[in-house]
Amino acid sequence: MEIAALRAINREREARRAVIYLSDVATGSGRVIREGDVVEAELTGPVRSAFANGKSTLVEAAGREWFLSVCAPEPRLVIVGAVHISQALAPMAHIAGFDVVVVDPRTAFATPERFPDLRLHAEWPEDWLRQQPLDPYTALAAVTHDPKIDDFALTEALRTGCFYVGALGSRRTHAKRLERFGEAGLSADRLATIRAPIGLPIRAASPAEIAVSILAEVIGALRSRGIEETEV
């Protein structure tokens, strides 16, 4: 790999953006591909799939062998709200390979005793996000049911292109949320990406079951990044 390519990869990694180093197995020549870059028609499918599943792979295309070396940031899950659902969701997401962060300004909820061995911040989301901005490899789940806490984080997640944006609440609650966000200037297209009511519709009842439904939805969103749009 050339020094220029290595430097380009390192820049993307520092910015939490995924890249693929595409190399011709026969010649050893290669190049860096960023998400959204145009590639040869025969490589479009394999490149898209590699970005989605995060796995390096060897493929045959146009009569040649190519190795796709994927360098993707660790997916992050930011949970806004240190509630009962979060107590189940956070450790499960950590086991699934996510970098998990729980943010809640309510110090009665955001305690190390309730969230042992996890990154916990007893801060308002707007204060924490000034230091830790969101990005397209971040999922955000807002579960406080309190607009004063959830709204800023949700709008910031939409603005920065988080791969998953979910919010707890009934359809009536979400309708009011959409009205507030629309009045704030967010487009209908962006608002349509919010997963609400949050989680897959598995008739979840307990906090742990709701956490399972959320995590499954987050994983589905992560692994279908960039695929659903191109296959419509």
TrEMBL record:
InterPro entries: MoCofactor_Util/Proc (IPR052698), XdhC_Rossmann_dom (IPR027051). It holds the Pfam family XdhC_C. Signal peptide: none annotated. Residues 77-218 form the XdhC Rossmann domain. PANTHER family: ALDEHYDE OXIDOREDUCTASE MOLYBDENUM COFACTOR ASSEMBLY PROTEIN, MOLYBDENUM COFACTOR INSERTION CHAPERONE PAOD. This is XdhC family protein.
